[in-house]
């Protein structure tokens, strides 16, 4: 029982049998004896699933197993809304959990298959004391399961290249649409313009990264020479511009069949759609 365990302050314990949990913890480099410790765990008490606060490092195996079965970590809610960028989300994590922004971005770049648009927008309950590595691993692992399940339900497979394109288009829809009902219409405009080899010319594509809440101006359109500027470049951006909700993804996959090529926002915040540039100008003047 004197064999020490080098532990982080917060440990994630999955659901499963005691043997499965002990095996999982062993695979995470905790200094355990799976064949012995599963029987110790039976005596100490069943492990709790979720986040567990270990609190100290270099503890004995017995103390570690006791904490795994008796200690819960204090949780704090963290909400990611559709349309927000990962950059801004990480800044919120840095503020709320006192973590290092550079390390968060480094871990995300290492684990995520997408630059942007991959983390699922929802409310998470995360433990105080969690590390940069663990929080990103949790968010990305959850996202990988989410996107795989959603793609397989729709297509019967998870083709990451095809899914990437849908995420990019969904992110533009997310930024541009005034509400969920407009999303299939915005989607139709995107596909119609792409088919005609027209530039998308959509302000939302410039609201990437730190620019999430920046008002797009004519000056910004002229000066931003990045591949996200759809006034300058044809096609879609190289990556999503924000995280996307389920409705935006479905709109990207199932656009409404329309002849629309233009839309303009009215005073009520909703968009009016048109097929011709002349009609677009009339709507704009209104």
List the helices and strands and how they pair.
Elements: E1 4-5, E2 10-13, H1 18-27, H2 34-44, E3 50-53, E4 59-60, H3 61-70, E5 75-79, H4 86-97, H5 101-111, E6 123-127, H6 132-155, H7 160-176, H8 183-195, H9 218-223, H10 246-253, E7 262-265, E8 271-274, H11 277-285
Antiparallel strand pairs: 1-4, 2-3, 5-6, 7-8
Radius of gyration: 24 Å
Q: How are the strands ordered across the major sheet?
A: 1-4
Order of helices and strands: EEHHEEHEHHEHHHHHEEH
Structural category: mainly alpha
Helix content: 40-55%
Query: How much of the residues is beta strand, in percent?
Result: 5-15%
How many β-strand stretches? 8
- What is the end-to-end distance? 78 Å
Q: Characterize the overall form.
A: elongated
Number of helices, where a helix is a run of at least 4 consecutive DSSP H or I residues: 11
Mean residue pLDDT: 89
- Stretches where pLDDT is under 50 for at least 5 consecutive residues are 1-7
- Total domain units: 2
Can you summarize the main beta sheet? Answer: 2 strands, antiparallel
Description:
The chain is mainly alpha-helical and 286 residues long. It folds into two domains: 4-70; 74-286, no CATH class. Helices cover 46% and strands 10% of the residues. It is built from eleven helices and eight strands. The strands form four sheets. A two-stranded antiparallel sheet has the order 1-4. A two-stranded antiparallel ribbon has the order 2-3. Strand 7 and strand 8 form a beta hairpin. Helix 2 (34-44) crosses helix 3 and helix 8 packs parallel to helix 10. The radius of gyration is 24 Å and the shape is elongated.
């Amino acid at each position: 029982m004197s064999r020490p365990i080098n532990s982080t302050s917060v440990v994630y314990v999955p659901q499963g049998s005691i043997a499965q949990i002990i095996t999982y913890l062993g695979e995470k480099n905790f200094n355990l004896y799976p064949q012995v410790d599963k029987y110790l765990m039976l005596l100490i008490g069943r492990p709790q699933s979720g986040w567990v606060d270990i609190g100290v490092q270099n503890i004995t195996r017995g103390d570690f197993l006791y904490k795994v079965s008796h200690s819960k970590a204090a949780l704090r809610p963290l909400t990611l809304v559709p349309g927000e960028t990962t950059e801004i989300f990480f800044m919120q994590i840095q503020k709320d959990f006192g973590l290092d922004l550079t390390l968060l971005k480094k871990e995300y770049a290492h684990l995520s298959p997408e630059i942007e648009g991959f983390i699922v927008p929802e409310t998470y309950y995360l433990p105080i004391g969690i590390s940069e590595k663990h929080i990103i691993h949790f968010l990305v692992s959850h996202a990988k399961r989410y996107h795989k399940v959603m793609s397989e339900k729709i297509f019967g497979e998870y083709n990451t290249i095809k899914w990437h394109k849908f995420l990019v288009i969904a992110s533009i829809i997310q930024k541009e649409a005034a509400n969920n009902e407009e999303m299939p219409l915005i989607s139709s405009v995107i596909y119609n313009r792409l088919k005609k080899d027209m530039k998308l010319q959509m302000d939302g594509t410039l609201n990437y990264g730190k620019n999430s809440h920046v008002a797009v101006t004519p000056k910004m359109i002229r000066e931003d020479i990045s591949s996200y500027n759809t006034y300058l470049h044809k096609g879609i951006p190289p990556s999503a511009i924000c995280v996307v909700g389920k409705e935006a993804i479905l709109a990207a996959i199932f656009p409404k069949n329309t002849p629309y090529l233009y839309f303009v926002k009215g005073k009520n915040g909703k968009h009016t759609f048109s097929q011709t540039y002349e009609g677009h100008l009339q709507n704009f003047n209104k």
